Amino acid sequence: TELDRIRNFSIVAHIDHGKSTLADRLIQLTGTVAQRDMKEQILDSMDIERERGITIKANTVRIDYPAKDGKTYVLNLIDTPGHVDFAYEVSRSMRAVEGSLLVVDASQGVEAQTLANVYQAIDAGHEIVPVLNKIDLPAAEPERVKEQIEDVIGLDAHDAVLISAKSGLGIPEVLEAIVTRLPAPKGDRNAPLKAMLVDSWYDPYLGVVVMIRVMDGVIRKGDRIKMMQTGAIYGVDKLAVLKPQMVDIEELGPGEIGIWTGSIKQVRDTRVGDTITTEKKGCETPLPGFKPAQPVVFCGLFPVDANDFEDLRDAIEKLQLNDASFSSEMETSAALGFGFRCGFLGLLHLEVIRDRLEREYDLDLITTAPSVVYKIFLRDGTMQELHNPADMPDLTHVDHIEEPRIKATIMVPDEYLGDVLKLCQDRRGVQLNLTYAGNRAMVEYDLPLNEVVFDFYDRLKSITKGYASFDYQLTGYAEDYLVKMSILVNDEPVDALSMMVHRDRAEMRGRAMVEKLKDLIPRHMFKIPIQAAIGGRVIARETLSAMRKDVTAKCYGGDATRKRKLLDKQKAGKKKMRQFGKVEIPQAAFISALKMD
Ligand code: GDP
Ligand code: MG
């Protein structure tokens, strides 16, 4: 395809502003997918995306569009996730395209992730076309939102495209805007092959699938190519474009996006951001690599059944191929055996990865209490990073502890501002800035990451009835009075539940934890004390009373099936439990216990 007939773009927006629905309409109107195969949010192909109604992975589709000028264009569309935990996925995708459609819900206006995503597009040097969606809604105020885009983002919005992705209104205008207002890619067909490895995933039939964006040169089926960073060499067995299912193609030239496979054995050979060239007469200098993602939340993942350890290792390796932003390292725990310490970009990211491991690889996992990374400065002048509270050195060696801090940007309607300020204050926040954009306040806070990571977003949503939006960035480390709080169940410490807390908040968190655990741990035949302690000092305590009767006793009479069902259910529940000394703790306890109400 000639360069001037190609347009590559991403769709960026705050969550729920309608990116995926717009992608649907573009796919539908151009007949890319047959009407009978069309479904809502067609690009969100993972079960977990469809269930949660959110986009997690950036998804690509190639569209043929016959434009008003009589020429047919190839459009490569990348739909991106909106949640802050997946910002890395967005930044990576943006490097593969030249333009962005900035979708803003005309009834909501600019939100925190609208800003975060549009700044990423600007950083990537994109041409940006603003699109105001949901103008079918009575509450839509396109003129006000245009002004807001100009005031808050500083982007010319006078010729924003007004659409309803739901009804299809304005979609032909979006297609024309893509062709006339976004730039064509640049590249040299006669230069050596230079392609960017944008994404990769494991397919049970095809093996490792690699998505690339060609910068210069041409890649053909049968070529022998080299990954510049890893030095690995493979033959191109299959070359295809995504429409969105794979359609084989003979070659991909400059500006084109597609996938290839080549019986890649070593999952580690494919690194997102790597440059791909031909084995012989390849290009000299690689593309600038991607900035690696920095995991901020760590937790342990252990198989419920110790025999599944190798399967877990294999599953993690395959999933990492598809998500370069999560890290892993082997870990052993006295209570849980062999597992992995994994790093994530946030708690939603953690939940998604755990879910995918369980579903896509059929594993039962135990997740230990998540923790941020602390810097422990020792009296001997050295510093060590603490990824796991269980590894906290003896206090007599510790000089001081630093924790990660963030700059949070929260946008909220005026009437909820007071509650938001209180929430931030309660979480040890320091206010940095407060400005207004129309009747929405935009407030910036300096906050400790560990106060934000677990349930801040949920709390914020609930106190503002869903109207607040939130985004954050890591800023650095600062010293504070932090201690390790241990949890003892039946007088035995449960390492997987120990956590770092601020000293002033330890009693409150300790009390909340033991109360939660009392509800989460099933009764046993004996009394179980549940305690929170700092060093040797108990700061909170609850007692779980002993079980009096057999569970089946409440099925009086002799309904055998009901009795059996109850026992089956108990057995299934047991699978998700772990023995700590004499006590069984259900896996749900490890994360639930940390969420504060
Ligand atoms: P995304 O998170 O940006 O991908 O947003 P989705 O495309 O998943 O849309 C979020 C919700 O808004 C869904 O329930 C859509 O049906 C709805 N929606 C999308 N576009 C429109 C629109 O033009 N009008 C109305 N009324 N609802 C829309
Ligand atoms: Mg979406």
UniProtKB/TrEMBL annotation:
Residues 4-186 form the Tr-type G domain. It is an enzyme of class 3 (hydrolase). It comes from the Bacteria. GO terms for molecular function: GTP binding; GTPase activity; guanosine tetraphosphate binding; ribosome binding; translation elongation factor activity. It catalyses: GTP + H2O = GDP + phosphate + H(+). The keyword NAD does not apply. Coiled coil: none annotated. It is found in: Cell membrane. Keywords: Cell membrane, Elongation factor, GTP-binding, Hydrolase, Membrane, Nucleotide-binding, Protein biosynthesis. GTP binds at D16, H17, G18, K19, S20, T21, N133, K134, I135, D136. Its EC number is 3.6.5.n1. CDD domains: EF4_II (cd03699), EF4_III (cd16260), LepA (cd01890), lepA_C (cd03709). Required for accurate and efficient protein synthesis under certain stress conditions. May act as a fidelity factor of the translation reaction, by catalyzing a one-codon backward translocation of tRNAs on improperly translocated ribosomes. Back-translocation proceeds from a post-translocation (POST) complex to a pre-translocation (PRE) complex, thus giving elongation factor G a second chance to translocate the tRNAs correctly. Binds to ribosomes in a GTP-dependent manner. PANTHER family: TRANSLATION FACTOR GUF1 HOMOLOG, CHLOROPLASTIC, TRANSLATION FACTOR GUF1-RELATED. NCBIfam families: lepA, small_GTP. This is Elongation factor 4. It comes from Pararhodobacter aggregans. The gene is lepA.
